[in-house]
Amino acid sequence: MAASSSRVGIVGAGAVGLYYGARLAAAGTEVRLLARGDLPILRSRGSILLQDAAGTRALGPIAAFATSGEVGPVDVALVALKTTSAAQTRELVAPLLGPGTAILTLQNGLGADEYLGQLFGAGRVLGGLVFMSINRTGPGEIRCFHPGFLALGELGRRADGRTRAIGDLFTRAGMRVEVVDNLDEARWRKLVWNIPFNGIAIAGGGITTDRICGDSLRAELARILMVEVQQAAAAFGHVIPDAFLDRQFEVTPPMGAYQPSSLVDFLAGRPVEVEAIWGEPLRRARAAGVRMPALESLYGRLVALCPPPPGT
């Protein structure tokens, strides 16, 4: 797959889908975005507004479509749906697939890679982990608090030439990319931040990350949760050093009054990815004989606070 001629279809016009669509399009990649609520403004403007340290700018061109059938087959199908939309995945993604289409999921937590593999074949599936701070601020508009990086890996396999070619698409768009040979380990590493900060933000009554880091009891709970994730990951052969945990308390305070993505969904009354981010890691840890009492308590609180998606 030549990076310069790839067509990327994006399913999910939230903060992640809009951000990567905007950056790829601005670098010359043909981007075809499946949009619903944002469709009128994206079509009229033809670009996505990005606010970051460099100011506010319009990035594009963006081709926005109302249905997956209109998007049609692409080289890379980038799935940026929330895991709470799993029931819609087959109908939204299938029309984007040609014989050689790779599926790249940028979804949170554990289980999304395997689910896509069951639907469309594991050989198509790559996983991407978004280590950045970003919010959708309006239709076709996003704000980036911290650019971070994107980690890419293959489902159940070491990274190959296809993974690196897709990584080149993002690198050419000015983004930092790390290609990993163990996708499962990378997902557990991301949970080191996602489990405590997303969870405490909601359970704490809708608080931002600066208030978690600035409160000794909340920061201590965050650290306890991180250690539990570290121990669970070790049961699957993944070594997460203490320095990685320490680093989370170094990179988070500069984000300021940041609302993690799960908190944004919670405050907006949208379904929260409770099962993918908290439930599935807890279940896998239990199956491996690892106790996670702090996560078990947090998960129970989140289940009570966050109603499941309709139809589940």
Stretches with pLDDT under 50, minimum 5 residues: none
Radius of gyration: 19 Å
- The top level CATH class name of the largest domain: Alpha Beta
- Share of helix among residues? 40-55%
Q: CATH fold name of the largest domain, please?
A: Rossmann fold
Helix/strand order: EHEHEEEHEHEHEEHEHHHHHHH
What is the mean pLDDT? 94
Strand content: 15-25%
CATH architecture of the largest domain: 3-Layer(aba) Sandwich
Profile the largest sheet: 10 strands, mixed
Per DSSP E runs of 2 or more residues, the count of β-strands stands at: 10
Q: Give the structural class.
A: alpha/beta
What count of structural domains?
A: 2
Q: Determine the CATH superfamily of the largest domain.
A: NAD(P)-binding Rossmann-like Domain
N/C terminus separation: 38 Å
Task: Describe what this molecule looks like in 3D.
- The chain has 312 residues and is α/β, with parallel strands linked by helices.
- It has two domains: 3-181, 3-Layer(aba) Sandwich (Rossmann fold); 185-305, N-(1-d-carboxylethyl)-l-norvaline Dehydrogenase, domain 2 (Orthogonal Bundle), CATH 1.10.1040.10.
- Helices cover 45% and strands 20% of the residues.
- It has 13 helices and ten strands.
- Strand 3 (48-52) and strand 4 (55-59) form a beta hairpin.
